[in-house]
Amino acid sequence: xxxxxxxxxxxxxxxxxxxxxLILCMTASVYAAENSQxxxxxxxxxxxxxxxxxxxxxxxxxxxxILKRQILQRCDAKLQPDKASQSHLTVELxxxxxxxxxxxxIEDGKAGKIRILxxxxxxxxxxxxxxxRTARYDRNGLTPGRWRGVSVPKCPLRAIYLATHFNNFxxxxxxxxIEHYIEDLGLWGYNTIFVHYPTWQFxxxxxxxxxxxxxxxxTVLAHAKKCGLHVGLLQVPNQGYKTAPxxxxxxxxxxxxxxxHGVNLCASKPEAQKLLMQLxxxxxxxxxxxxxxYFEFWPYDEGGCSCEQCWPWGARGYTQISRDWTRRIQKKFxxxxxxxxxxxxxxxxxxxxxxxxxxxxxxxxxxxxxxxYIMADGHGDYFPKYLLAHGVPAQLPLVNFPEISMFxxxxxxxxxxNPAPQHFQMLWDRIKHxxxxxxxxxxxxYEDLNKAIIAGFYWDPNRKATDTVTEYLAFEFSxxxxxxxxxxxxxxxxxxxxxIQNSALLAFDLVTKAQTKLTENVKNCWRWRIFYLRALIDKxxxxxxxxxxxxxxxAAFDELTQLYYAENSHSMPIKPPQLK
Length: 580
Ligand SMILES: [Zn+2]
Description:
This protein has 580 residues and is an alpha/beta fold. Among the domains are: 14-151, Chitobiase, domain 2, CATH 3.30.379; 472-564, no CATH class. The protein is 38% helix and 13% strand. The chain is built from 18 helices and 17 strands. The strands form 3 sheets. Strands 9-10-11-12-13-14-15-16 form an 8-stranded parallel barrel, surrounded by 4 helices. The protein has a 6-stranded mixed sheet with strand order 1-2-3-5-4-8, with helices on one face. Strand 4 (104-108) and strand 5 (114-118) form a beta hairpin. Helix 5 (175-187) runs parallel beside helix 6 (208-226) and helix 7 packs parallel to helix 8 (317-332). The longest helix is centred in the middle third of the chain and has 19 residues, at 208-226. Residues 1-36 have low confidence and may be disordered. The structure holds zinc ion (ZN).
């Protein structure tokens, strides 16, 4: 496992303050390959020289751009690109063959140089994340941290699933913000971005809405790859377009948690198979130039058909069509890996009466060569009992699907940040000995801290959620507010299910106090605002005994709506609840 050396967040190089108070500048968020020259940055009275080990590697140049953007948004900066000046601090980004794939090493070089080395470009990105998180940002600039060592991730699939539907944040926000957010997730160690092409929203591949979606997410996924990340599609193999003829539609499956938008086709009908293959081919061709590293099959919510030929879906219709699709996918993308999800194999009574687990196990024992990972998880605190009792079907690697967005919340993210480190620690502890990673479900960015917590688990399964929370608070806010904000996170989790206790008053006091220690950059960033607004909303709702009334609450909900770009969202309306 990892040779991680746990750093001390926020420690500074006080003895070097004269030269390491840096003010860094940038000219573009992504450092274009054609401009891959060393970057010299004005640093108060000195200069920072950002050196690329391989100037011909465009991914390294893009990672350098991420490093510059991150520092700029945390420090007051001015652009003084004087490349002729003497540099006093050099930061080198390089790929080094002796480092394990995806791992990184941060070390001191000669004459004050800091070297961030990765086994591949992705490793350099994760190393830059560690460099950034262990630095300190003040009103005058940046102080590099003291963390040095080697770190290698334990879990190979450290994905995030961005739900791209209902006009949510990922569909509605300016594309540059989505790209920056994906970069930020990469800095925490995520290595794969999954999105879902929502066929049930479209009349067909060439409908205007579909073209808009495809154009947007081709751009987003291509950007992820330029930063050293992998990408994949998550699709329901029997889900058609809105225009699918009624004659090919499937039979509704039992159980309300399994979902149905009415366009699930019967995978056993030849005419349906033909339409579904056309849909798949069209979709794959759209992503030909981007390149798909993963394809994930999804059984339910939405999906499924319970006709005599398809049922039990998870052991028959679903597995057969997924196996057939895999052959088709890998003709176009030979190295594409396959994730087979088992979401909602159980019904809402926590039973599995239809034999899907047993049937899937039997199916895969005959041939498991087409599957790389089995994904399993459940709503709320549930985890499939079959897996815990019998192990993973065909002993394939297991990945999970943490629900970080919607649990106990309506509207999703509607009250601000929703950190729940204890909840996710409990869920992770049950499976950390058998998990090979996973993909949290995300509807927006209000669960940003939960994403960091899960990334911490995937990097090192024995890392504690509270350690990641501490690192997050130091990095995103300030090392000076860790103690108070740790208490706030605990109170937020206690009040998560909206039975708000008087601890909400203390949380607001602590947030107000912490805010006095923050830089202007941090006070105005969305990550701080969703924390501040959560504290404010909880305090107001405690004092009003849960009533949604008054100008303060309305203004808070309005601001959240703007921060999430949720003005026209459908199922994630941060439109103020019925304010009187
Ligand atoms: Zn059927």
